[in-house]
Amino acid sequence: METIYNTIGTSYNATRQADPFLVGRLLHFLEPKPDKLYLDIGCGTGNYTIALANQGLDFVGVEPSEAMLKEARKRNERITWLQGTAEQIPVEDNSFDSAIATLTIHHWANLNQSLKEIYRATKLGARLVIFTATRQQMEGYWLNHYFPGMLSSAIAQMPSFDLINDALTKAGFEIATTEKYFVKDDLQDNFLYTGKHRPALYLNEEIRKGISSFAALSNATEVEAGLSKLHADLESGQFINIKKTYENDLGDYLFIVAERKTAIPVI
Questions:
Q1: 49 and which of 2, 20, 37, 40 could share a cystine (Cβ 3.0–4.6 Å)?
Q2: Secondary structure of residue 40 in the 3-state scheme
Q3: Going by C-beta distance under 8 Å and a sequence separation of 6 or more, which residues neighbour residue 59?
Q4: CA distance 116 to 172
Q5: Cβ neighbour number for residue 74 with a 10 Å cutoff
Q6: DSSP secondary-structure letter at 33?
C-alpha cells in the first residue's frame, strides 16, 4: 500500500481535503488541552494534521509514504513529519498525550502490533480516536452493486469492530465511546463512499484516483463496466431504486474513541 500512496501522493490533495465536520468531531473526541502533544498516525499529506494544528494543537504526523510526507512538508513546515509505520513509530515511549488515526487502520500490516506501539508511544490516560468503517457498514454501500469485486477486496482488508475492540483491549486501551458517521451531502474529503448522495462523482477519474480502493484494489474491466452501468442508471432514474435497497441505519463510517488505561497490556 505504501507503493500505491507513493504513486498517488503528488495528486492526492486535488480531491482530498480535511472535512470541517470531521475536524470538529475529532476535536470533540480529543478534548484537547493546552501545551499537549498529539500524534496523527498514517497522516498522509497531512490534511487532518494541519487542520487540527490550525486549531492550536501541537501535532506530529507519522506516515510510511515519503511521497505523501513530501507534500505534507510543503504545506506546513512547522509540524514535525516523521516517516514510520503504525507498527514502528520513531519516537520515545510516552511521547504523546493523545492520537488520531483517520481512515488508515485497514492499511496497517498488523493491527495488534500497531495498537501496542501506539500504546507505547502515548501517555497514560491518552485518547486514541479512530475514524474507520466496519465490514458490516461497507456491505451496506450501494457501490457493491456496481463494483462487487473491488468492494469485496476492500471489505476483506477492513478489520471488524470486534477485532478492533479485541486488539485495543489486548494493547491496554478501553473503548470509551463510539459514534456513527453518515456521509453528508457537502462532504469535502472524497474518500471511498463520498458519492453516497452524489453518485456522479465516481464518473470523475480524478476522484477515483484519490481513493485507494479504486487505485489499488479495482479491476479495470469491472470499473469500466460499473461506471457504464452507473451512468446508464443515473440517466434512466433506475439508480434511485438501487440506492433504496441499500438504505440502512448502520452508519457509513465509525468513530471509535479509546483510552489508554493503567492496566498492563495482555501479552
A1: 40
A2: strand
A3: 37, 38, 39, 40, 49, 52, 53, 79, 80
A4: 8
A5: 11
A6: -
**Do residues 110 and 91 make contact, with C-beta atoms less than 8 angstroms apart?**
no
Domain 2-260: give its CATH architecture: 3-Layer(aba) Sandwich (3.40)
pLDDT, position 108: 96
Distance CA 69, CA 154 (A): 24
Q: Residue 141 has what pLDDT?
A: 98
pTM to 2 decimal places: 0.92
> C-alpha cell of 181?
458517521
Hunting for cell 500497531 — which residue is that? Answer: 114
Average pLDDT for runs of 10 along the chain of length 267: 46 78 98 95 97 97 96 96 98 98 96 98 98 97 98 96 97 98 97 97 95 93 97 98 98 98 59
Nearest to 102 by CA among 46, 155, 58: 46
For residue 46, CA distances in Å to 74, 80, 159, 213, 229 come to 10, 11, 24, 20, 35
